[in-house]
Fold each of these.
Amino acid sequence: MIASAEIDVSLAGVEKRYGHVVALPGLDLAVERGSFFALLGPSGCGKTTTLRVVAGFETVARGEVYIRGERVTQRPPHRRNFGMVFQQLALFPHLNVADNVAFGLRMRNVAGAAIRARAREALGLVKLAGLEARYPRELSGGQQQRVALARAIVFEPAVLLLDEPLAALDRNLRQEMQAELRQLQRRLGLTTIFVTHDQEEALTMADVVAVMNEGRIEQLGSPREVYERPRTRFVAGFLGANNFLTARVVGSIGGLLRVEAFGAVLRVAGRPRKDGETVTLALRPERIRLAPPGAGRFTARVTDIVFRGPDTHVRLERDLADFQVILQNSGLGAAPVHPDDMLDLDFAEESLVLLD
Amino acid sequence: MSSSTEARRGVLRLIAAALIVPPLAFVLVFFVVPLVYLLYGSFTPASPTSLFGSGFALTHYAAIVGDDFYRFVIERTLFVATIVVALALLLGYPTAMLMARLSARGRLVMLAVMMLPLMVSNVIRAYGWIAILGRRGLVNGTLLSAGAIEAPLPLLFGIEAVALGLLTILLPYMTVSIANTLASLDKVYREAAASLGAGPLRTFIHVTWPLSSPGVAAGMMITLFLMLSAYVTVSLLGGPRYKLLVSMVFDQVVAFQWPRAAAFAFVLLMIAMAGGLLIQLVLRPQRVGGRG
């Protein structure tokens, strides 16, 4: 595959092994210029390995790596022109903030006056102006984060690589940094590859999400696509709690499949299947309403109720299948729910996703 | 913070303080007191009947500063110390880099192998070098019988033999000290440097070297202090004429010149402290503290 002009980073058939363990069995990937690309998956899925292959910290057994259309597969990391924020940040403890940020410029032999100006500008971008003389140990976690970011973008790299950079921060600070990082990335139009195991983080920040499992990309798409239209059970399960319905195909009508579950006949979109085949459907907990018996799709018994403030999680059971329902506590006078109530699950057929 | 945890902290601090008392008392009685006594002694006149004479005398320090031979010995001591510490660093650092790359188990094996020679007494080791480097030693014997030389080379009794003898003792200390720092240094710093465009050489100069400065400083100081106080190796391999400051202390002691011996001991101590300070000032290992 030859990288076209709009593609900043691409991998073609990249294979990576650790001894006998295959980490990446043959990965293809293309990241468009200016996009915020998230590699999402559980630990051990190969997302960090993929990032390190782009950086050149890992050599590949087969395949090619391109940055801005140049083949860099055999090039050492320091000649690949990327910026990176590491999970451990790795700020140089013996250098102050200004020297940490200036490091990449010095290594590129930028003139002294320009170094100072650009370092100051980068620190301004991350709102750290005035802290030039501080040492990393004298900064808070959030400030260290910003220094690491400034250090990685100051030399205007072809691509910014982020390896779970927000994992060490507490929840509030993390959300603040997510928003800021996103803003900065948009403003600078910086092509960014972001590794995370946090689905919420990937969905809120990325333009494109690649959900990875066992070294392969299971699904690639916009956050809305992968969230609302998961293709596999793995993607549906990894992107938030999902309910899974086992159903039987009973026919088709007008391009839609007719399937039967718990006595209810439902219509779902999907490729044609044989009659009698068993299929799995995904259904988001927040897409289900509870209705009096007979008023919904099928009946189940309430087993557990957890009040969580803005919403209430209700667990129901039917024929050994568990269902999770999220009810918004909007104060609109929904009938109270009690354990062992028999209630109907009600949902729109469009909310059902047929999985492969 | 509740007052009960405050109180518990207070008790813990008290226990911690109590634990420090015995070693502190030990150091005070067996180190600080004798040292102060020695310092006092170095300012007394010599006495034929007692350890230190009575009264105050600056004569020993004046003699050390004024005597050409003494000054020469001090200069030579500084010279040999510089050479030995520099060589130990030069040879120790690459070895330490190799060692740091091994697995924890491999490092332990290498450590044991390096420490093995240290289990032999310094006296025996020095005689070993004499057997190798002496007039009829292994090297000269081989060269003579091969016809490469006509007369034995003067390998012993000079800075070469002394430096060689000291290095074989001191190198493991330097290497282990640096290797420990390098092994605990996260490779992410080197990766960060590479991500910023630094090749291997610049990564070493700007990142690895400064971050290893605590180990380098510790290694250099251990090497310096051990070197300055090494007596057996210096006197056996340096011979009766190649004297360093320790030899002067010893010579004065066997001549029962206790106050002058004390003065030499203090000059040696001052040199060691100045050397240690210089190492700290140049390497500034404290700046690496608290990694970001």
Amino acid sequence: MTINWGALGIVAVVSLVVGVLVVVLVSLALVGLSAHEPAHVSEPAEETLVIGRGGSGLSLSHAAGTVVAAVCLLGAATIVLYGIYLLAF
Amino acid sequence: MDITVIIVLVIVTALAFDFTNGFHDTANAVATSIATGALKPRTAVLIAGVLNLVGAFLSVQVAKTISSGLVDDTKITPTVIFAGLVGAIVWNLLTWLVGMPSSSSHALIGGLIGATWVAAGADAVKFAGLVGKVLLPAVLAPIIAGMIALIATFLAYRITARGGQRTVTKGFKLGQIVSGSMVALAHGTNDAQKTMGVITLTLITAGVLPAEAGPPFWVILSSGLAIAVGTYVGGWRIIQTLGMRVSTIETPQGFAAGTSTATVILTSSHLGFPLSTTQVATGSIFGAGTARGVASVRWGIGGQVAVAWLLTLPTAAAFGAVAAWMAATGPLGTIIVLLVLVGVAGGIYAASRRRPVTADNINDLQARSQQADIARRDDEDIAA
């Protein structure tokens, strides 16, 4: 009986790195896109609007949020496309 | 029995197995998307079905026989393959009835081993190969996928904690659709190839195709269609177990679980260490659930799933062995096996209608599960 422990180790490490990377990239992109979310009252008692903060204390401008989201989504999309490439070829 | 009749019988049975493989494994791709409401149930299974069909055409590699390294290929006859398929189908239907996600590949391997053992003796079974190809992956696949999903879910919650709730939820739902689609595509490629391999091996054995021949177009098409239709029919009971009974899944968890599943399957397939899609998907969902607290996972379900995995190989082997023993008695025995299979399948379907789980009522359990979750958290808050 021979078990290819090397291949198994690579599967675990590569899957961990790629899987976590995709989730982190998408998460960051969503944080960036949150800058576009309509502002709302952050504390009901304060009755003040928190503009461009995604309604949750995020201090990214619309432009910066868009750039972060675009870069992160591009990275995630590249990984997904590479996955499809692996499937097909 | 005429060899042509046997070949037709094997092809029809292989496609029937492919169909059960499809609806048994639908949950792997769509369970979390349905659970979080990222997709409506019917839409989810339609997308998964189409992508399974596309996946069947994606790979240009010759379909490899699943028996490779596990049984002596020279001892396999079309009748043995038929008996092995019968064992796998019966196990798939039984586990579907009780809503347990178990590996269709392991069921097929078990069925073939049992049938080969009865038809050609224990020497024809390579038990050493079982450890590396079945037992070890069965233990490691859910652990690896679960760890990845756990870490990814933890990070997803931490990173998006300061993001806008509406954008985050909507974004993760879209991400779930993409990751679930990748799983469906990979499933179509991997699992449809198994059926193609079985049918091609049968045709080669019968001299219809030359040795080393690849699967003809009609074999690829029929295998792809069978798994796609099976996927569209939807194994709602297993979807219910994975999507709603294991834990109350939120969108970051669903996305992390789907991404973990897709990544592990693609990486392992590409690096030559294929793992069971079902076990990877199940491990991912448990890992993603655990990230929100160990108590948020219903570990009793995990125990039931583990028992189902332990029983898959020996039980499918026992069914395959009985089928091979009966089929070896001659044409009448083969016909009896076929009739018993049809009868068992009909009986299981009839039993399933007593408590039907369909696209129309699957979300009812989800709502009850969420209410129970909220009540549990309230109790914990009061206790604190």
